[in-house]
Amino acid sequence: MRTRAFLVLAMLLVATALSGCLGVGSDDNSDRENDPFNVPTWKIGDWWLYTFTTPEFSDDTARLVVSENDTEDGTAYNLAISNHVEARRHAVLNHNPFLGRITHDNLSAYENGVPQPVFQFPFQKGDSWNFTLFSVEWDANVLEVHIENDGVTSQRIAVISASSTDGSTLSYIFDEGAGFLRSLIWIDSEGVEQLNMQLASFGKGHEGEVWFIRASDLFANSWSGPDVDVRDTFFVGDHPSGVEYDEMIYYLNANMGGGTGTLTLRDHSSVSALERAWQPGESEEGQLGEINAPSQDYTLTVTLTGQSEISIIIAGGITSSWVL
């Protein structure tokens, strides 16, 4: 209970810092606090700029943009990213669940092909529901509702806390003015903050090209020296939807310290798709790349000597883009 109370306080402080001050309660405000939150209606070009912090990867920023409003037979929006490199990064790291299809009726995010009700519209203080996100089953409760005034306008925020049976917590704020998440913090059962997602700004009428990469994990591993000499294989079929991948995306880290290292990725015809070699003291952090038209079978070889380490994540991607 102490952990949850601390998280709620922290979320309220974040809300206050971003928007100015919480409105002083009046009779009108009290009535609004008791009103249910209704699902917002998004339009093509609506956007939200978020920062993402994770324990494994460097921080990044992405602008999420509504690129479509008629997917899933007219029942869902599509959220894309305004930067192609960031779209690839989010596809391979898979730490942003709010990309791709988002349902009209509930702003539910899809996980493994199933819409998950992170929200349950219409909702109000005291409501509860359950859903699955990050492959974790959550029980959510609306803990607090507040009115915010900036001297010109006022809007409401809802502080929601979700817990799982293993002790993990998910704390997030719905911002009625933004029409979406203001923040989301996921802390696992070991007390490690796995994701901290914070809204920086939002707006309407985004113009330009946006991208969404529908991805699926293909391979991930890490190795530490000394004396590593491994050979591994993996198969690239189609996306679970049955659509053929048009590219593979990789995220590579290497730190040689006092040793050396090599990494080679070859396809079934022995054509080299990726080759790297590092000398003592060299490193690559967060190297992002792509391999077009992936073939069926791949062989990965890694060698390490001395104090050295390599890690790689590989995902298959199907890329879509829109010009707004």
Question: For the report, how would you describe the main beta sheet?
Answer: 11 strands, antiparallel
Order of SSEs, N→C? HEHEEHEHEEEEEEEEEEEEEEEEE
Helix content: 10-25%
Shape: globular
Strand content: over 45%
Domain unit count: 2
**What is the first-to-last residue Cα distance?**
46 Å
What features would you describe in this structure?
By secondary structure, the chain is mostly beta strands. The protein has 2 domains: 206 residues, no CATH class; 112 residues, Jelly Rolls (Sandwich). The strands form 4 sheets. Strands 1, 2, 3, 4, 5, 8, 9, 10, 11, 12 and 13 form an 11-stranded antiparallel beta sheet that branches. Strands 14-21-16-19 form a 4-stranded antiparallel beta sheet, covered by helices on one side. Strands 15-20-17-18 form a 4-stranded antiparallel beta sheet, with no helix packed on it. β8 and β9 form a beta hairpin. The longest helix has 18 residues. The chain is globular and about 70 Å long. The N terminus is likely disordered.
Descriptive key words:
single chain, 324 residues, mainly beta, eleven-stranded antiparallel sheet, four-stranded antiparallel sheet, 21 strands
Write the layout of secondary structure elements.
Elements: H1 2-19, E1 21-22, H2 27-34, E2 47-53, E3 60-70, H3 71-74, E4 76-81, H4 84-93, E5 100-103, E6 109-111, E7 114-116, E8 128-133, E9 136-149, E10 154-163, E11 169-175, E12 180-187, E13 193-203, E14 209-224, E15 228-235, E16 247-255, E17 261-267, E18 272-278, E19 283-292, E20 297-304, E21 309-323
